[in-house]
């Protein structure tokens, strides 16, 4: 490859001239100009490495690794040597390293030991347009450094997204624009029949059908070049591959998935040329927007969707939400085509939809947990958290939420400086909650340090359990081996010890349906944490009481300590209606108190990685939870009485107009409910579905926010009191017409009992009754959903549940029990039936 022909070299002299006369410059260019790999080389050849290291930050581990390897090969230098890289728990640098590629988190760690970065002559912040929380924090710290070190240089490297903001932040520093050769890209707006989404089965099916249709069209037109499809997440990518496999031309495709969980080797396959006679198609998350350049792309299919994490600083819970991407991201995706030839971009949304989108993606600082950044600020002696000079100030709510978190973890003194516990927490490159459990073990339970390090390693990595397509039943059986009475945190220890003792670790992972790369990462994290603890002079001991182990976990995860609330839900100190996630080995259990590794909102608020806690532990760790248990506050009682009075005072009825139909609003138990006659609402729901494909869904449903409803069918009620968002979701995904006097109804016998040994075939054949609707309670004419129940011993029966979530929860528990008890006895046809139903229910979670 002729590196000097890359577009960045056209501006080489200007870049060096501007950097000589300015402490900060912004380099703006589209992906593929060579700025990431060549700017460090240009700086090295210009002599900047003689007075200090050239530091390059990358937002992703995979990028840090690939960039360092590329530069070392280009310079024909071994690594580590002149070129090296460093990321969390992995250091490939030496005393000779002059060009250091690192993740942005590593630079933050180095700043606490060397606040003025005295070892560096220049820092290049790459992919700055991504505006991650770490990038924003780094920019603020670099701005402080340049006021103290006049010899220090900073380069902000960005794609063509809002670079003027960086210039203004650094007092009008120059912006150098690098133009890359591009070819015309034809835009085609071609939305699916239902607005693009993977939130409902109907919408996802329409989306996948549209993608298959476009791919078929491209193949029939004989277009040269590869295809790049953008989808919001890993599951959608796998569903898309499965959908394409049903087409007659599937064998003509060379399909390559691309998402964050893939290994470096798997990700690098996207750069390969396809076998002769095949069309290369890369199906990717937003990782291919700017971070990875695939040169042979000629056609882009853009769903217009991405998944973003949102954090609630009041409830300390997070959610990974599917969102519409910004205009800037839409244009970045379009730009992936036309790099080497004329291209085409199919947008699976309307032009009107595009025009209503936000200009830029909401910065991470507004939607993430700030506790780690605030703790690092305190470590650096920056105590005026609210007034730190962020490029985009996060606002007081996020800062207050972070301070509350750190106070609950005993990390701050009253003057906001770090406490002795906080100082120890900062020694670990982990989130504050995870480092707190280690500190608790070190200070109070030294005979459990090893166990707690294992738990911290699991919490800081992705889940290692996998469910390969078509092997879900086998995977569940394999994972059941690790189940422990004391829950997931006890299971972590069992999994790790069995893995550590296995002579053939890859085979062990394959047999037990574990991701071998994730398990290797967990082992590496644990080893690195042991080194940190050993450097503190603390021995790595194990074998202490499990009660003490769970106490240490609860101390760090105090925000996720919960007490039972109702039949199957829990409440924490800050939020209610939390349910144990089906992926937990505690899913079928009902404990008085639990601790979770995380609480995430999807279709419900779910506790992930769950273990039971004794009342004794609660009294020590979260006594306030006991005071709240089974009590309604005076304020709540007063509000309830006020609502009852208001109901009596206001007999008049409100109404709302939806798609030309007017629906009454009645107050039931103090909450507004929409009354939805089925025949009318069925048409309204259909109109809304069509509208989703034409304009922004949020605008169409804005008037329904905060409302609950109930569907009336033949003088019966369904989904009474549920939120309108859930009602629409159920209506969009299920046939909720009552079952008629047909063979199906005859098979739905509430008095029939199924036993695995005698009735397995009959039971499996009856599973298609699940979620059909029928009378739940004749005296009140309540409709409900047909639900599968079990007693855990091989005895199953069908029954009607009024609530959709109850039906989903009970059916999922029962289906998991069926898989655990009878999985080996299923024939191939039965496996397919169970897999399909199990997969569909999991997607509804």
UniProtKB/TrEMBL annotation:
Extract the Gene3D superfamilies matched here: 1.20.120.1080, P-loop containing nucleotide triphosphate hydrolases
Cite the record's Basic and acidic residues compositional bias ranges: 633-653
SMART domains linked? DEXDc, HA2, HELICc
Pfam families linked: DEAD (PF00270), HA2_C (PF21010), Helicase_C (PF00271), OB_NTP_bind (PF07717)
Stretches assigned to the Helicase C-terminal domain: 210-381
Q: Does the keyword Hydrolase apply?
A: yes
Q: What SUPFAM superfamilies does the database record attribute to this sequence?
A: P-loop containing nucleoside triphosphate hydrolases
Q: What molecular function terms (GO) are annotated for this protein?
A: ATP binding; helicase activity; hydrolase activity; RNA binding
Query: Can you say what this protein is called?
Result: ATP-dependent RNA helicase
What organism, scientifically named, is this protein from?
Answer: Treponema denticola
